[in-house]
Design a protein that fits this description.
The structure holds two protein chains of two kinds.
Chain A (H helix, E strand, L loop, with lengths): L1 H28 L15 H11 L5 H13 L13 H36 L5 H14 L2 H15 L16 H35 L2 H8 L4 H38 L5 H10 L3 H29 L1 H4 L8
Helix pairs in contact in A: 1-11, 4-5, 4-7, 4-9, 5-7, 6-7, 6-9, 7-9, 8-9, 9-10, 9-11, 10-11
Chain B lengths: L2 H19 L29 E6 L13 H8 L8 E3 L5 E3 L2 E6 L5 E6 L13 H12 L14 E8 L2 E6 L6 H5 L22 E7 L3 E6 L12 E6 L3 H9 L5 E2 L8 H5 L4 E6 L4 E6 L9 H10 L2 H9 L28 H10 L7 E7 L4 H13 L4 E7 L1 H10 L5 E6 L20 H11 L4 H17 L4 E5 L2 E6 L2 E2 L16 E2 L1
Helix pairs in contact in B: 7-9, 12-13
The chains are: A mainly alpha, B alpha+beta.
């Protein structure tokens, strides 16, 4: 297990470095000059040159990369090209919105998807089994922003029950206030996310329901509930957890859109604005931090699988699931 | 499945998704217009301690307008937190603010300003001539990114004979000098960290700035002049126009500084809880030709194109009943405005005749570089279908704001382009043959130069009118229309600015019932 942990950690570091290089190069492949974001119509050649010098786009690429990597090593995410303000503190301030948003949406999605997926499989022969299945199919096809707009139109504009967007100025000083403003965005992401989760849970449960070990255990006199509890759920959980790891990561993608629709000052809206303005330090910073988060989540999901499934513990590499 | 690979793909996918989601931004953006005069009726009984929520699409990049703060910081801080020696009112007049008085020497080169007595910065420090000198030099400094920097190149020397007197010597006469000074914030010369804090003399001081969300201004108790009619204003920032409209519909904000989605106006217009105000804007939508190169080097070709496009129909399809046709670069709020819409009237037969006379009886083809954000793509499609009627083939090339700046503005690598020009008094660019559109008419260049050196405002106005008439006659560009400036507010609100020249939004006279 220790060897496994060390190898896994080394892999994490290598992946992060690789991601950093890919991020850096991808951004530089974009056409255009970030200095343009600093300029307006009417700027003279002197101001254009000064803007290029200020953000360093007049220096060679390798030099820019080494500078950036050096900053990374000291946990310094640099300064925004446009605002000249440090990126790190701004990311930290916005995590206060994005982390609760992502986690709450994720939890809600799991809470909805696990029982619904289980029911859809267990009651595949009743009328509501296929219905649940059909609803989840539909849910996968629904775009996040559309669902968000639909919820705003009904709950905020029509019933006046919840705010249409925004986040309290004093963040979590009043937790009830903060939760209220996160409610609709959380539901938006959770609904879309649970739609695909339901399908994974359903197919994992179907596999287990058909399995020989479950039939044998029941033949030995166990009740269905007992059999599911001791063996079924645990086996079904293994593939679901690996999917959960990926889903949690993609929730962040949803956050980019949802934060814009709900005017939330989170990481997603910061990223969107950074890209629109070619503000590379902002984009690099946000993607670096989120890549780090994704890798750590993958690592934790791996560990969780090993705790649940003893068959995986002896191996150091990923085994077939 | 290998999760490590997935993670990397995930990051790349996030990037790609976000890229497609947000192409716009950058050079674009419409000037919101504002001034202290309100069009809304005075409130019967207003709450002197009200908090006013202001919704805007223009978040400041930082809090320093010489370090890339952008349009957003002008909107939030001009007149509210920082004051100039002069103030540009909502109807475009210049009045004394921190300058109590000024004198111009007979040679027109030396300006002597007397500062108002008893003015204090938010720190408690008194305003002195040293602060004024520092503030002007901050704008003209080498590393200054002020959009107004070039207007102050005429300054030769700034002297401070005593605490309340500033003397500025110019290298040549500049009739716009006092007007231009209204854009310079007077800053406490001892202040530091101006990208995240402020050091102004205005009726509000900065409360908190929550990046990506809001900026709070609190009434300053030590203000030298008439105190603000509300206790606090909070600018709420949105990236999405419909999120901004929703905020107004749910009373999360009381007023929207500049409505940018024409489709959203209906829901406010027929609702007694809101007032839709039609003010004056200075933002012009241009079909700018590259006047250096064939076929647009011939005025006759440009005139033909101008006459072939039905601007009225275009404006109507985008803004409905709002907006104005101008026929030139000068909006009605500039002193040298004239109605020139008749110079190149919409007339297909005239257009065809002009094309034939110019040597293009069968038309020609050109590429139209079109910024990818509204309203440019819509306008481009319209222009294409209009010009097809006279045999001109348009190839629409959609580009980002950033590409536009490099390709069109810096490299002048274009035949024709669409672009919004936001500033007032910017007809003078036609006097600069090096400007991106390359209009080179020595007479116009001379008039623009002379106008700036005029002794009187009347002299300046007369010359700039000539400029305006000449560029219209030459169809230097096709000025498609002037944007509307629409402030939508709760009907409980009064005293808000309607025009807001050059993105200003004076909040200190806003009242709430």
């Amino acid at each position: 297990m220790t060897t496994y942990l060390l190898r896994r950690l080394a892999f994490l570091v290598v992946s992060l470095l690789l991601a950093a290089a890919v991020l850096f190069l991808l951004l530089r492949l974009l056409p255009g000059d970030p200095a343009n974001s600093l300029l307006t119509i009417g700027a003279d050649p002197g101001q254009i040159a000064a803007a290029r010098h200020q953000i360093g786009s007049d220096r060679p690429l390798p030099q820019q990369f080494v500078t950036w990597l050096g900053q990374m090593a000291t946990f310094d995410l640099g300064e925004s090209f446009i605002s000249t303000l440090p990126v790190g503190p701004e990311i930290a301030a916005r995590l206060v919105v994005t982390v609760p948003l992502t986690l709450l949406a994720f939890l809600l999605a799991v809470v909805v998807a696990v029982p619904v997926g289980f029911l859809a499989a267990h009651r595949a022969n009743r009328w509501y089994g296929p219905l649940l299945n059909g609803v989840s199919q539909f849910g996968i096809a629904v775009p996040v922003f559309w669902l968000g707009m639909l919820l705003i139109t009904s709950f905020a504009l029509y019933f006046h029950l919840l705010p249409a967007g925004g986040f309290p100025q004093d963040d979590w000083a009043d937790p009830a206030d903060a939760l209220t403003s996160l409610l609709l965005p959380v539901v938006t992401i959770a609904l879309v996310m649970s739609a695909s989760l339901i399908r994974y849970v359903r197919s994992a449960t179907l596999d287990v329901l058909d399995s020989d070990y479950l039939r044998t255990f029941r033949a030995l006199g166990s009740s269905f509930t007992g059999a599911m509890w001791r063996h079924g759920l645990r086996n079904a959980a293994v593939p679901v957890i690996s999917i959960l790891g990926i889903e949690l990561a993609t929730t962040f993608l949803g956050a980019v859109v949802v934060e814009s629709v709900f005017a939330l000052p989170g990481l997603g809206s910061m990223l969107a604005k950074g890209i629109a303005q070619h503000d590379y330090p902002i984009v690099q910073g946000v993607l670096f931090v989120s890549t780090f988060g994704v890798l750590v989540i993958g690592f934790l999901a791996d560990l969780a699988q090993r705790l649940i499934d003893p068959r995986l513990r002896g191996t150091t590499t990923r085994s077939a699931r | 499945m290998n999760r490590k690979t997935t993670s990397l793909f995930g990051a790349a996918a996030a990037l790609a998704l976000a890229l497609t989601a947000c192409g716009g931004g950058g050079t674009g953006g419409t000037g919101t217009d504002a001034g202290p005069n309100s069009g809304a009726p005075a409130a019967a009984s207003s709450d002197p301690d009200a908090t006013i929520g202001i919704g805007s699409l223009y978040e400041p990049q930082n809090l320093d307008n010489t370090a890339g703060g952008g349009q957003g910081i002008t909107e939030a801080f001009n007149g509210n937190v920082y004051e100039g020696l002069f103030r540009l009112t909502d109807d475009g007049k210049v009045e004394n603010l921190l300058a109590e008085d000024y004198k111009v020497a007979p040679d027109g080169l030396t300006y002597t300003f007397t500062l108002r007595d008893g003015v204090k910065f938010h720190s408690g420090e008194p305003l002195t001539s040293a602060d004024v000198k520092y503030s002007i030099e901050k704008v003209t400094a080498k590393d200054s990114q002020s959009a107004r920097k070039s207007s102050f190149e005429v300054i030769k020397k700034i002297a401070t004979p005593d605490e309340r007197t500033v003397t500025v010597t110019l290298s040549s006469k500049s009739i716009s000098f006092v007007y231009n000074l209204s854009y310079i914030w007077i800053i406490d010369h001892k202040a530091t960290g101006l990208t995240t804090t402020e050091a102004g003399t205005g009726p509000y001081k900065l409360g908190t700035w929550k990046r990506g969300a809001s900026l709070t201004l609190d009434r300053f108790p030590g203000y030298w002049g008439t105190p603000a009619t509300n206790k606090q204003v909070v600018f709420h920032y949105y990236t999405d126009a419909s999120a901004l409209n929703n905020a107004l519909l749910t009373n999360a904000v009381d007023v929207v500084t500049s409505e940018q989605s024409p489709d959203a106006l209906e829901q406010f217009k027929n609702n007694g809880d809101y007032k839709v105000n039609d003010g004056h804007s200075t933002t012009k939508l241009l079909l700018a030709f590259n006047d250096r190169e064939a076929p647009f080097d011939k005025p006759l070709v440009r005139k033909a194109v101008t006459s072939a496009i039905d601007n009225k129909k275009l404006l109507n399809s985008i803004w409905g009943e709002y907006g104005t046709l101008i026929g030139s670069m000068v909006p009605p709020t500039d002193p040298w405005y004239e109605d020139l819409t008749k110079v190149n009237p919409y007339d297909l037969n005239l257009a065809k005749k002009e094309l034939a006379d110019a040597g293009y009886p069968n038309g020609f083809a050109f590429t139209l570089d079109t910024p990818n954000y509204d309203p440019h793509p819509t306008a481009a499609t319209f222009v294409k279908s209009e010009l097809a009627k006279v045999g001109i083939t348009v190839k629409i090339n959609v580009i980002t704001a950033d590409e536009w700046y490099t390709k069109v503005y810096k490299n002048r690598d274009f035949a024709a382009t669409l672009q919004e020009h936001v500033n007032d008094r910017d007809v003078v660019w036609y006097g600069d043959p090096d400007f991106y559109w390359g209009y080179d008419e020595p007479q116009v260049t001379a008039w623009v130069k002379q106008a700036e050196r005029s002794d009187t405002a009347e002299g300046q106005t007369a010359l700039l009118k000539k400029v305006n008439e000449k560029i219209a006659a030459d169809a230097a560009s096709d000025w498609l229309y002037l944007y509307p400036q629409i402030v939508v507010a709760s009907s409980k609100l009064s005293g808000y600015p309607l025009n807001g020249l050059n993105s200003q939004f004076y909040a200190y006279t806003i009242k709430k019932n």
